[in-house]
Amino acid sequence: MRDLRGSGRLRRTLIGVLLGTALLTGCAEKQEANDTLPSTSASPTTEALPELGPADFPVPDEARTKDAAGAEAFLRYWIDLINRQRTVPAGQPLRDLGPDCNDCWRIANNYDEALAAGRRYDGGKLTLNDVTEPQFTGDEASINFGVRQEAVVMVDAAGTPVDSGLPTQPNLSSGVTLVWSEADISWLVVSMTLG
Question: Where is this region: Disordered (predicted)?
Answer without folding.
Answer: 32-62
